Hints:
By secondary structure, the protein is α/β, with parallel strands linked by helices. The chain folds into two domains: 3-136, PhyR, sigma-like (SL) domain (Butyryl-CoA Dehydrogenase, subunit A, domain 3, Up-down Bundle), CATH 1.20.140; 139-261, 3-Layer(aba) Sandwich (Rossmann fold). Helices cover 52% and strands 9% of the residues. The protein has helices spanning 3-7, 11-22, 25-41, 52-67, 87-90, 96-106, 111-118, 122-137, 151-163, 175-184, 202-210, 245-261, and strands at 143-147, 167-172, 189-192, 217-221, 237-240. A five-stranded parallel β-sheet has the order 2-1-3-4-5, sandwiched between helices. InterPro entries: Bact_response_regulator, CheY-like_superfamily, PhyR_sigma2, PhyR_sigma4, Sig_resp-reg_PhyR, Sig_transdc_resp-reg_receiver.
Amino acid sequence: MSLGQELAPHLPFLRRYARALTGSQQHGDAFVRATLETIVASPEEFPREVDPRLGLYRTFHAIWSSANIEEGEEPTMDLAGAEGIAQARLSRITPLSRQALLLTSLEGFSSEDAAYLISASPDDVDSLVAEAMSEIERQTHADVLIIEDEPIIAMDIESIVRDLGHNVTGVAVTRDEAVAQARKSPPGLVLADIQLADDSSGIDAVKDILAEFSVPVIFITAFPERLLTGTRPEPTFLITKPFQRSTVKAAISQALFFDAATVPAA
């Protein structure tokens, strides 16, 4: 089996991770593209001492680290131009603590594997995750709309949202209900399933809401590959069912982190 064939099954999930890390489909995909170009240019340098998925994410993190800059500095890697990545976005590169949290919570890596990916020790990873979770607890509260037709799942998500200190404005089970609730109480975050109670689409509900409001969205689905085909606009934040509470917390935190980062200071 060729290296490309080994890596292909892992690419949709690397795109998911990259988007969660950057807060943008465009920017995340640009980093993934740069990763693949690096592998194609020097396949002999691909880490073969680990499994292909770990090697793929390791290569991605090497590209990511080369672009990681402090506020006010110039980017050390030019991903602008054709990719359209602005310096303003690069200057808000996700902190290491959030990388550790996303790798373990969203992507399911062990502390040992995450340590390999970010060049740290497993104990460092555990400390970074704890730091990120503490940051989540301090985060500004948001009004959250949940679009989910399974009552038990909706209750679980609502519990997670409230545990984080956010307010749930409503739980909608159809497209029309979701749009109506968004108009009644404009949300600061939307958590959406794809298949809804009346066979309407959560994707269509989100499109309707985004036509009227600028709000971050997290999709929750049992079939993430259906939204990670690379053939149409894809979500920046995507959670796979069944989910862990820590995964939802990490995604909410990251979505709000970038949403707040785009608001100019008063």
